[in-house]
Amino acid sequence: MLEAPNRRPARFITFEGGEGVGKSTQVRRLLTNLSQRAIDVVRTREPGGTPKAEAIRSFILQGRSEAWGAGAEAVLFAAARLDHVNEMIAPNLAKGTWVISDRFCDSTRAYQGLTGGVDDRLINALEDLALDGHTPDLTIVLDMDPLTAFKRVEQRTLEEGLQATGDRFEKEEIEWHQLLRANFLDIARNNPDRCVVVSAEQDEEALETAIWTVVSERFPELQGRSLA
């Protein structure tokens, strides 16, 4: 008996990168592209994705954990990720549903590990515990100069009449964000089989096309699938 083409194997795709590079927008666009090709897919985010993980997200991004230091934040992110994997990611993959996540374990390694100075041994141990073997099949690292990214965020805020806000990490100095960018690129260079760097310094439609090219080339089962 032939297996339904969209059931197995399910793929796990993550998006990484600094603040304001357009991850959330491109996650939504990729979700649409996959859904239109009859792929069962869900999107999620980190920290978050489950009620417990969302509570931890709120605690961290409000700055309430900042005084505890980067090590404590890494532990909190790992706790959120453990629940996220167990309650959302693993069950969906097991039933054949693709999962796209806006951030995952590479963010902890880049933010708290390489940029925050947390010992690599702790980062590795927390990653092993939380992932339980659920390593992404593909990680798309969106790359953009931080100055350009923040100018885009400011322009969008003005155009949409929104109140300017900043979470725990957006308020860091520009030098911190430049180091963060370099650390994401280092992670990509050290994991070439999983990570693909895509320049985010292009318009949303062009970036969407570039990402779809990467995804469709990585997963042969997408080739030849027409829009529903």
From TrEMBL:
Chain coiled-coil ranges: none
List of residues binding ATP: G17, G18, E19, G20, V21, G22, K23, S24
GO biological process: dTDP biosynthetic process; dTTP biosynthetic process; dUDP biosynthetic process
InterPro entries: P-loop_NTPase, Thymidylate_kin-like_dom, Thymidylate_kin_CS, Thymidylate_kinase
Annotated keywords: ATP-binding, Kinase, Nucleotide biosynthesis, Nucleotide-binding, Transferase
Top-rank taxon, per record: Bacteria
GO MF annotation terms: ATP binding; dTMP kinase activity
Domain Thymidylate kinase-like, residue spans: 15-211
EC top class named in words: transferase
KW Transferase (keyword) present: yes
Gene3D superfamilies, A to Z: P-loop containing nucleotide triphosphate hydrolases
GO cellular component assignments: cytosol
Reactions it catalyzes: dTMP + ATP = dTDP + ADP
EC number: 2.7.4.9
NCBIfam families: DTMP_kinase
Function, in words: Phosphorylation of dTMP to form dTDP in both de novo and salvage pathways of dTTP synthesis.
Family: Belongs to the thymidylate kinase family.
Descriptive protein name: Thymidylate kinase
Natural source organism: Devosia chinhatensis
Highest classification ranks of the organism: Bacteria, Pseudomonadati, Pseudomonadota, Alphaproteobacteria, Hyphomicrobiales
